[in-house]
Amino acid sequence: MSEESRPATQGPPLLYDLTSLQREANGRFGFSARTTLSLAQALYEKHKVLTYPRTDSRALPEDYLATVKKTMEILGTTKEYGALAKSVLKQGWVKPNRRVFDNTKISDHFAIIPTQQAPKQLNDAEQKLYDMVVRRFLAVFHPAAEYLQTTRITKVGKHQFKTEGRVLRNPGWLVVYGRAAQSATDSLPVVARDETVRIADVGAQANQPKPPPRYTEATLLSAMEGAGKLVEDDELRAAMEAKGLGTPATRAAVIEGLIQEEYVHRNGRELVPTPKAFSLLFALRHFGVSEITSPELTGDWEFKLKQMEAGKLRREEFMEHIEQVTRDMVERIKSGDIPDTAFATVDAPCPKCGGKVQENYRKFQCQKCDFSIWKVTSGREWSHEEVSELIQKRFVGPVTGFRSRRGKPFAAGVRLNDEFRVEFDFGQAAASSEAEQAPDFSGQESLGACPKCGARVFEHGVAYVCEKAVGPSRSCDFRSGKLILQQSVERAQMVKLLATGKTDLLQRFISKKGRPFKAYLVKNPEGGVGFGFEPRKPRAASAAVAAPAKVETKKPAATPRKPAKKTAPAVQQDGASSQMQKRLKMDVQLQRALDLLEGLHVIQGTKKG
After folding, report:
1. Which of 20, 202, 426, 567 has its CA 20 to 30 A from that of 304?
2. 343 pLDDT above the threshold of 80
3. Cα angle for residues 412, 413, 417 (degrees, 5° grid)
4. CA end-to-end distance (rounded Å), the chain
5. Are 250 and 298 in contact (CB under 8 A)?
6. What is the rounded CA–CA span in Å between residue 561 and residue 500?
7. 395-403/380-381 β-pairing
8. Cα–Cα distance between 521 and 519 in angstroms, integer?
9. How far is CA 211 from the centre of its chain?
């Protein structure tokens, strides 16, 4: 093993303004922008332990040194922050510094910092936010963290592997955040020159390009703050340089407004645009008012406001411009219309008359009869392929992405009933038909042998079932859903499960709390289907903080044994594992009953999702 290193430093982050506080609180604790604002406002108004939060400045006034020192002295008397605050004062780190004290970077208010008031009776969320602000306040006066930026070459036979990372030499401001911040960096363990290392594992990883991730509130706040970068005109971009879209105090309300009006849904921490949002953007482009969707409109108005500030534009002229733009947009929308022009033709013929089914702005409509399918059902927009499959097979699913009237996401099979109307199928249609007569599986290929009785397993509606688990004379109860905790279980994965006892690692199960997790589906000893999890990797040791002149290297420890893979008990029909069954049984049964009641409702042809 050989390596090349060069010294590098990482300065402490700037003090918080409201947007950066909202961004980090969302990333760390999942707080929405509105929640963070209300917590910060309570800490300012009610508890009086933070300065004014609705600020876009990340610096302090140049005459604030004495106040900062006094605040440090008060923090020095606390149990949690005392040692850190005393160290800052003892080392004399509170001194004039343009990165912290700069009048030119202050607008109406300065950065968010703790006050000289001791906190009392904070709730858990308020304590978390207060701790964030105090630690940032302490960190900004610490020196930079020092690293050796390292490129390490490891030779294995005739092959060479490159590892890049950093070896921490002096933690600096990272001591404020403890081991969590130090281990979060891409640190490398310290090794001796030309040290021989042991290979613990060699394997190939299959990767593929991933689309850009969806916005979270944290990343959307950053995009709104830096929206001026998207403006091409130099003058307009300069006018928006310090503004962005909205203000620190209004951005949270903008996001909440989009959610309230159902243009965006929260899915865990992700923000997902709804069909209503896409329809709105389509309509605006059709009416020729797409400028309202561009940050250049904001840039133009900010430019005119700066002209007013410099006395180059009268207020009356600016207001006349605003009124004219508004009248023009309203007139274009008022006089415009979206015709039912066909965008595309569905591959499958109309199930009612055999005519062509074409897509227009609102629905998939037959050109000869009254058969139609709304493009949006329960908040989910249909694709051509899904509509084609629904028409041809009279069933599609299970399909994810629906939203109930209470706003909760759900998945379901969807079928075309005898009256050619779309309705949800949560398994009730299959269950009723099974009670009358056994399904005909003669035209299907079996997926494999039932793990309970050895009979054949087939696809049936929204589940994979044993052939002896359906019909009036059933003798087996094996059934596994095609969708488990919002993770689609493809046919190939069920074939692999039945043949080998385990699927591939499935990437996107969603827990009851909305958190994604990875797991295998495995056969358990009772013949049911359960979860199997990857063994946890041993926690990496924290990067050593070594003195520059002397490095001590320990011999490599023996490879820890990999713990046995945990196998959870059987996955029931609704997708919850029996490992969780004792705790969730009543909740699952209640939720399933509510879903079945909702699924019995037939989607009327005159109602949008």
Report:
1. 20
2. no
3. 130
4. 61
5. no
6. 24
7. unpaired
8. 7
9. 13
Which comes out higher in pLDDT, residue 343 or 609? 343
Least confident of 353-357, 503-507, 589-593: 589-593
Here the tokens at position 7 are 């010294």
Looking at residue 477, what DSSP letter applies? Answer: -
Q: So what's the pLDDT on residue 420?
A: 85
pLDDT, tens digit, for every residue of 27-38?
A: 889 888 889 999
Name the residues annotated as catalytic: 52
**Which residue's structure tokens are 């227009």?**
360
pLDDT of residue 582: 42
Gap between the Cα atoms of 3 and 593, Å rounded:
62
Amino acid code (one letter) for 459: E
The owner of tokens 């059987």 is 570
The structure tokens 């994979």 sit at 464
Helix axes 82-91, 65-75, angle to 10 degrees: 140
Residues paired with 459 in a beta bridge: 464
Dihedral of CA atoms 278, 281, 283, 284 in degrees, nearest 10, equals 170
38-42: long-range contacts, CB 8 A cutoff, minimum separation 24? 39/125, 39/126, 39/129, 40/112, 40/129, 42/126
279 torsion bin: left (phi>0), alpha (psi -120 to 50), beta (else): alpha
Q: How far apart are CA 248 and CA 40, in angstroms?
A: 12
Strand ranges of the sheet holding 2-10, from the earlier edge strand across to the other edge: 2-10, 145-156, 159-170
Amino acid sitting at position 381: E
Q: What domains can be seen in the chain, in order of their start residue?
A: 1-199 (1.10.290.10), 217-335 (1.10.460.10), 429-535+563-578 (no CATH)
Tens digit of pLDDT for each residue in 41-53?
A: 999 999 999 999 9
- pTM for this prediction: 0.58
Distance CA(609)–CA(50), nearest Å, equals 45
- Residue 448 confidence (pLDDT) above 70: yes
Measuring CA to CA, which residue among 489, 355, 488, 372 is closest to residue 422?
372
Integer Cα distance of 42 and 130 in angstroms? 11
Q: How far apart are CA 403 and CA 272, in angstroms?
A: 12
CB–CB of 521/503 below 8 Å? yes
pLDDT in tens, 211-261: 888 998 888 888 888 776 666 666 666 655 656 787 777 888 888 888 888
Q: Are 541 and 499 in contact (CB under 8 A)?
A: no
Contact 522, 497 (CB under 8 A): yes
Residues 397, 459: contact at Cβ < 8 Å? no
Rounded to the nearest 5°, which phi and psi values hold at 532? -125, 135
Residues 260-280: tens digit of each pLDDT: 888 888 887 889 888 788 888
Tokens of 423: 């309705």
